[in-house]
Amino acid sequence: MPVTRTILRRAGAQPGGAVVEVTAAPAVDVTVIVPVHNCRPYLDRCLTSLLVQRVSKEIVVVDDGSTDGGAELADLYAAHHRGVVRVVHQPASGGAGRPRNVGLSLARGEYVFFCDADDYLGPEALERMLAMAGRNDSDIVLGKVVGHGRRAPSSMFERNAERVPLEDSAVYNSLSCFKLFRRRMLERHGIRFDETLTVGEDIVFTTHAYCHAGVISVVADYDCYHLVDRPDGTSIMQRKESRDPVSWIRMIKRPIELMAGHVRPGPLRDHLLRRHFRLDAFANLGRPFLEAGEVERKEIAAEVADLCDRWLTDGVRERLGAVDRGRIAALEDIDRLVRLAHIELAVMRRELTALRWDERDTGLAVSGRVALEALEPAGHPGLAAGDVSLVLKPRQAGEGPDSAVVVPVASDGEEFAGVVDLAVLPSGVWDVHVAVVCEGVVRTGRLGAERDQRIARPAPRMIGGTVVLPYFTRPYGNLSVDVGGHVVSPPGIVRLVRARWAAWHRLVLDGEITMGALTPDPRTVRHLVWRERGSGKERRVPVASEPGGTFTAGQAVGRLRPGTWDAYLELELGGPPVRFRVEAEPELVAPPRTWWRGTAVRTAKPYATAGKGRLSLVVRATGPKALLRRLLR
């Protein structure tokens, strides 16, 4: 709960120098700072999204010389929401740094959050981020950012993280200021926006904050911040000059120098430097490099070379991909840099033309076409593809690139064909990619979305007791292989052949399982499972299975508690256990059975459910009092 702070000051103007006790306004959980400059069409939505946040808050709107009516609208909000919305007016400064700093100087919240006037928050954004901060005593909380017409960062929002270290995460990839910051940390270390910058001031600010954050947390399961594109292109970041490559690389040296002044040489610094090289330096050797003139290309290459001379360590180099390492080697060869940019940005055309099982039924024969097409083919030689391969990547979280399986294929021009031996794949889901090498650069893309419409999904196969299910993903239609039935349900029907009562009130079931063209190995049939419909409790019964899919299982019904029990056959097919409901014709179901157990009467009634005709069993126990009441009716 906010704590009311009492401030004692000496009022020298009062007789006797009396001490006057002044009670300050209660502290708030979060101060939201909104810089405003000519954002009138978006300001309503922004401020409304902040007012609906169910947290103790204050909203500080800093009008930076607006001339479109935005200042008047902000004043209207302040008049109707006294004590929550405050407005400060100042002359236009030309950037967001000064208004954000002014807002920080007025903030009273334990945390501060920066929101641009053309963006908005999800209704539960601050509540969820503050809850995360409260659980972990966080200094910075990242809330998931989603883009509307603008690209939003995503690598750091794969999952919630209570406490995430800088070195082993992707949080440093996000250097925008749209985060929750502990205000005490900002004040203690003098963390402010660089008012001399019109672009990149938030990168300097957030870099500095990361250097002093003890605990960083991530809220990834809720859309917290909505990043909005302005159709009129009036946002500073939407102006073409805001991402001038040479100016950007020169600007990025400031946060790099700041970070290096706080982080000693070693793995952590190399990890952070990798972000700046990949996203700030080498990114400008791609499309911006192709769009630049001859003189500017030399300037870009020279600025990147200067960064490399100062900050490129062996540890950073090891963390870079082949394309970026190739660029480093070519910084003095402008033509080579142009060529690499064309290869990286080329459209990768690929098509699946045939898909079938090979003669051994353990290999998937894959045929297709692949080609690279330069974005600006005029005046540039064609991009001749070299070696082609199929790459199967595991979908499981935490699997690294070394887990991928590379399958060489034969190629002739754009055509390729190869066989994937699925017997070597561990259990899991594998996504199929096609990779092509062009002048030492590897381009990889998913395979299957573009395909001949006559291609059908190959039928499942059993390979060494494991079910293998090729399939096309939804909604994109890419080719994947499920080894073990993790996301694709194996086909199967379990039918009751006969049910009979045996000694000791054992219900014996004879049945058969069919799995389309598959022949289940008897060793894959594990249990008959009785599951109580109300409580979810289960009883497993051993199964005697035979080649051809027949099986026998018996359950001592007296061991089942009263309730309604549904019958399943459970198989182990190389992945998670697979269950099939036992289907039954009514005439094949055994009759009810009644017997005494102590002073109670027990009844077991097998039956086929209405509609789908599945085997279930009702077990009842009637005590003496209930039995007597029934007899006296």
Automatic annotation (TrEMBL):
Ranges for domain TarS/TarP linker: 247-340
SUPFAM superfamilies (UniProt xref): Nucleotide-diphospho-sugar transferases (SSF53448)
Source organism of the structure: Planobispora takensis
UniProt xrefs under InterPro entries: Glyco_trans_2-like, Nucleotide-diphossugar_trans, TarS/TarP_linker
The protein, known as: Glycosyltransferase
UniProt keyword terms in alphabetical order: Glycosyltransferase, Transferase
GO MF annotations in UniProt: glycosyltransferase activity
TM regions (residue ranges): none
Domain Glycosyltransferase 2-like: 31-187
